[in-house]
Amino acid sequence: MISVLEPATEQVLAEVPQAGVEETDAAVARALAAFPAWRAVAPGERAAQLRSLADALEERREELATLEARNAGKPIADARGEMAMVVDTFRYYAGAPERLLGETIPVPGGVDMTFREPLGVVGLIVPWNFPLTIASWKVAPALAAGNTVVLKPAELTPLTALELERIALAAGLAEGVVNVVAGPGRVAGQRLIEHPDVAKIAFTGSTEVGRGIAQGAAGTIKRVTLELGGKSANVVFADADLERAAAAAPLAVFGNAGQDCCARSRILVERSALDRFMAALEVAVEGLRVGDPLDESTQMGPLISAGQRESVAAYVDGDAPVAIRGSAPERPGFWFPPTVLCPVSNDDRAAREEIFGPVASVIPFVDEADAVRLANDTIYGLSGSIWTRDGAKALRVARALETGVLSVNSNTSVRVGTPFGGFKQSGVGRELGPHALDAYTEVKNVFYATE
Ligand code: NDP
């Protein structure tokens, strides 16, 4: 059994059976058996079934939000927003089965056409930071394209994924189309990676595990998409609306207690504006409401586990240049106060490694070229922000940054209808938007002779 904890109390929230190799093999076998019938479902009918699933999830939205808030320790307001995105994601991809268009290509002697074929059984391995949201980003396009899925949630947060399996069945999807195995990554996850009947792995998690997945998948030439870590830059120029940039900066890194691959954890500030920016940032960080995830006004909850807290705390030792420290409850729960380090050199460990907790590093820069150089001086390239009133500069910097998802005068970069994914060691492939379907289909080329 897996004892699932509630990070805000350290109490056991649920006990669920732990899947091992045998259960994983059984789930793959069910998915493989269901595949021929699911891919043959007419596109309009597959769309209707995905819409039914979206409706069923919407009906259970509040309950799922509460479960996610308790299990992942995230503020209930955030969890509600995430469940709305889950519903929207299934609705969005319900539009896909009837729009999986092919092409005709002019060739001599006949007609050449392309088809987007499903891959078969796809293995989906997801983390604990946005459990059902990230699962939906993978499950919805995979199903829309005609694949069947085996979803492996993180052992720390399996509860909403297990609900999804039940909800999909109740919404009318055939048995075996959506399968969930709640087991350890090294066992259930590893088995999916090696299984000869799994055509593809879509993974979100650490760069280290992602590297192992790419290696493991090579054995059977599996398709792989990877959404990995980040160390994204929030670049604030002196000509920006500094008060707005500073007011928005805390939640761009402390949202989800910093456990977000998009966290703008390196705040690059033009040196001439540093003092003004820091003064406004201090007010914003000290005003953050850290506490009970189920309290409607909470903006930041605890970390996911004792281990995560220990790993985050190691970045704030006695020598760390702590400039601002917010508050955190002093009671059981994996709490850590929002913390801003300043000044930090881009060579420091806090600026190079994904801390995955509420610790931000402020790094001063001198001019545009320096900002671009510092922002790109990382192995990662997932997201980032640019704050300036100079539109041409914003676009110049946006084109120069080696990162997959950027926002100008905003810190939001994840939308159902737009592509999401990383450059460099932040990953391979894109999720969401029309691009995700490329990751769940093979292009087939057919030539039909007419002479
Ligand atoms: P992991 O990358 O270990 O976990 C992500 C998922 O992969 C989980 O479902 C996990 O299963 C599974 N997994 C772990 N090991 C294997 C394996 N050998 N084969 C197959 N699947 C595996 O992240 P952690 O939970 O360990 O977090 C550690 C760090 O990773 C964080 O501090 C953060 O820096 C980064 N991270 C980044 C995320 C992102 O969104 N970019 C998300 C989560 C973490 P299980 O946990 O059940 O063992």
Describe the structure.
Helix 12 (349-352) links the parallel strand 13 and strand 14 (359-365). The mean pLDDT is 98. The chain has 14 helices and 18 strands. It has a seven-stranded mixed sheet, with helices on both faces. A six-stranded mixed sheet has the order 7-6-5-8-9-17, with helices on both faces. The radius of gyration is 23 Å and the shape is globular. With 451 residues, the chain is of the alpha/beta class. The chain has helices at 21-40, 43-59, 61-72, 76-94, 131-144, 159-170, 185-194, 207-218, 242-254, 274-286, 306-313, 349-352, 368-376, 391-400, and strands at residues 2-6, 11-16, 104-107, 110-118, 121-125, 148-152, 178-180, 198-204, 223-227, 233-236, 266-270, 322-325, 339-341, 359-365, 384-387, 407-408, 427-428, 441-449. The protein is 38% helix and 20% strand. Bound molecules: NADPH dihydro-nicotinamide-adenine-dinucleotide phosphate.
Keywords:
451 residues, 14 helices, 38% helix, single chain, binds NADPH dihydro-nicotinamide-adenine-dinucleotide phosphate, seven-stranded mixed beta sheet, six-stranded mixed beta sheet, alpha/beta
Question: How are the SSEs placed, and which strands pair?
Answer:
Layout: E1 2-6, E2 11-16, H1 21-40, H2 43-59, H3 61-72, H4 76-94, E3 104-107, E4 110-118, E5 121-125, H5 131-144, E6 148-152, H6 159-170, E7 178-180, H7 185-194, E8 198-204, H8 207-218, E9 223-227, E10 233-236, H9 242-254, E11 266-270, H10 274-286, H11 306-313, E12 322-325, E13 339-341, H12 349-352, E14 359-365, H13 368-376, E15 384-387, H14 391-400, E16 407-408, E17 427-428, E18 441-449
Parallel strand pairs: 5-6, 5-8, 6-7, 8-9, 10-11, 10-15, 11-14, 13-14, 15-16
Antiparallel strand pairs: 1-2, 3-4, 4-18, 9-17, 12-13
